[in-house]
Structure formats: structure tokens, C-alpha cells
């Protein structure tokens, strides 16, 4: 490698000697960057991993790559801020990412033109400030096996990590298209489980799974995946919850979910799984409020396009997926804005024990040809009413908010069944406003978002619903 250095005449001799020492040091120990045993390890470096031609004994250079990402971390190698690990095509195993730094980012990403495969991926406790970018996590496509566990997991104690621009699925579409009910039960698990704080799940494509992205709590006091950002992800072909948040301080925005299947595990036929596009509950017996959650610009449609051949959308002749549900309260200081919900079950948005929160500019109507759909604001399970909420600029089939107290209502529109009056193509799931829609210009700017669900700027007077005309 040629290096050109521009220096003054008086310092040229010292600089040349220093460069020579550094070059010789690197040649003598080509893995020093990765092991942290050389002063040069503080400089950013690029490494390569190639299952086809690599070796664990190589230095990780472009022409002498390591073999798999699983081996890299199992070997105990460490990395500095700015380092990039490029993954080439092939099966990288089930890597467990370790190691933390106080600032900066280390990146694991697909090499140009590559789609590196993994069976599973785990950010272990203490894994801090890692970004994984552009990988495929799929057990069936990695080694031909399946798991009902978590495909990607952020452990408690894994913080400030990112999974982005990746694909997470139990199996390929061609394989999932052949699955019957018991295949779904025995071959698909949760795509992404987040337990550690301040992690991000961004712009990933999730398919053929039981659950999509789950944010969990680790104690009745509410510790867990607080501070999580879940943005721009799509969940397609799933059979339980698309998204779940059981902790305070999380952000879900501009995600989508579609095609929920009626999978029924053996023994649950009389009480099939409770399915939701987005769900919050505690499930630990506590009444610690879940606070400061933002749901913004998400599009949830129960089904669209062609379903997989062997599994139905219905069970016993009924659709089963609900929309946005916050079920046992108390909840406080939530923002629920610009969401689009189209499901066949009447409980399209059910908020139980929601307090001091904003429910603004949502579009909630049934998926054709169903007829029931409502925004429900009601008591938490101990009978305490929801209190102090703001409900504005919503466009819904029905509102059921009479049980709440001290609620501010304005500029909401009850659509009834006049869908063709309001929407471009309700049967096809296009709920953008059509020319002449009564929702155009019928909103208020008060407590309303300035962008719509497409991240388009709203203009005054604002429109009612998730989309600005």
C-alpha cells in the first residue's frame, strides 16, 4: 500500500522513522488491531470474514479473511471504535456479539454485493455500541434447521446496539409457502427480542415468524428494553404479535405489518392465541405505569395480496388479528398518532387505562369486507377509568370512548360505512384521502403532528386521519 505524506523539511526524518516503526509493527503482528495488544489498535480498521475461503488463523485482511463471524467472537477478539467487519457470502453460524466501548460505533456489515447468512444472532450482556447492517438471519437458509426461539436477541445488559437493513425470517418464502399449521408452530419463533436498554431495530424486513419485534421488561419496576427505537421495519406473514412493548420509554414509528395467519397450536383450539398488530401488557401482576411510549405512522393491515397456500387467515370462519391494544393499564403519557389500522376484528384500537395521552390523526376502519371497527378508550382491568386524554383529528368507523373521564374531543370524524366517500380504494386497503373527501381540511393544528403517516408535511388547515391529501 502506497502512502503519501506532506510534511515540513525539519520533521521529515522523524516522520519517516515513525512510519517505518508502525509499518514494521503491523507486519510483525497482523492481528494486533483485533486483539487490542498494540497501540495501533486505537485506529479504525477494516476486517473481512469469508466462510468459503477464510481461516480462523488468518489476520482478517481482505486477501486473508477470517472464516465465520461466530468464530471471530468465540475467539475473544476485541475491536475499537470505527472498526468495520465485512461479511462475505456464506453461513456465519450463530454469532454471539460481545464487548463494549464507551463511545463511537463498531460495525458488522455485508460486504458489497454479499448477503451473509446466520442461523441466529445475539447481542450478549455487555455488548455495547455495535451496529449490524445488511445481514440475513434465517435458520433454514443458513443450515437447513429450524428454531422456535429468538432469531435475534438483545440480552439484558446489551445497550446502544443497532440491527438495521437486515432480513430476519424463520425460512425462505418458498419453504414457508409449503407449511401447514403444525409446521408454523414447530418451525417459527420470534424475529427480534429486545431486553437490554437503548437499542435500535431499524429498517429490517421480517417474514415467516411467530412474532415480529418484542420489547420486554425484566422486573415489576419496569426495567428492561426502555429507550428502544423500532423504526421502518416490515413484518409480513406472521401468526401472533407483530410488535410488542411492555416497557416505558419506547418509540415505534413508520413500521408496517400485514398477513396474519390463524395458526392454532395443539391444545389451544378452544382458546386460540391472542393476536395483535401492536400489543402492550405487563403480565407480571404489577401496576407500575407504562409511560412515555410513542406509536407514530405505523400501517397495520390484517391481510393483503396472495396468502401462503397451506395456512388460512381465518379460524373457525373468523379472522383473529386485532389492531393496537394496550390492555391492562395503567398507561400514561402515550402519543398515538398517524397510525393506520385495518383489521376484521372490531377491537381495532383498544386502550384500557390510558391516561394523559394523545390519540391524534389516526385512521381506523375495518378491512374489507368486515363491518366492525372502533377506537375504544375504556377502564383498566381494576375498573379505574382512563383519564385526561386528548382525542383529535381521528377518522374511524366508530368511537367508543364514553367510559373515559376528563377527555378532550375535537375534529374527529365517524366514517360509518361511507368508505367510498373518504378513501381512494378501501377494498384494496388504500386509505389515502380521495379528492373531495370530507376529511380534507377538517382537522385542527392543536396537538396535531406536522407530518403525516407518509412523512409528508401537513398544511393548514390539517386533514383528519393519518394521511394528508
Q: How much β-strand is present in the residues?
A: 25-35%
Low-confidence stretches: 1-41
Q: What integer is the average pLDDT?
A: 90
Classify the helix fraction into a percent range. Answer: 10-25%
Shape summary = globular
What's the total helix number? 7
- Please give the order of strands in the largest beta sheet: 1-2-4-7-10-13-16-19-23-29-33-36-39
Structural class: mainly beta
How big is the Rg? 25 Å
> Total number of β-strand segments?
42
Give the terminus-to-terminus CA distance. Answer: 56 Å
Main sheet overview? 13 strands, parallel
Topology:
Elements: H1 12-28, H2 32-35, E1 46-49, H3 69-74, E2 84-87, E3 96-97, E4 106-110, E5 117-118, E6 121-123, E7 130-133, E8 136-137, H4 139-143, E9 150-154, E10 162-164, E11 167-169, H5 173-176, H6 181-187, E12 190-194, E13 200-202, E14 205-209, E15 211-215, E16 229-231, E17 234-238, E18 243-245, E19 251-253, E20 256-260, E21 275-280, E22 290-291, E23 294-296, E24 299-301, E25 314-315, E26 318-319, E27 321-326, E28 331-332, E29 335-337, E30 340-342, E31 347-352, E32 354-355, E33 358-360, E34 363-364, E35 374-378, E36 390-392, E37 395-396, E38 399-400, E39 408-410, E40 413-414, H7 419-422, E41 423-425, E42 430-433
Parallel strand pairs: 1-2, 2-4, 3-6, 4-7, 5-8, 6-9, 7-10, 8-11, 9-12, 10-13, 11-14, 12-15, 13-16, 14-17, 15-18, 16-19, 17-20, 18-21, 19-23, 20-24, 21-27, 22-28, 23-29, 24-30, 27-31, 28-32, 29-33, 30-34, 31-35, 33-36, 34-37, 35-38, 36-39, 37-40
Antiparallel strand pairs: 25-26, 41-42
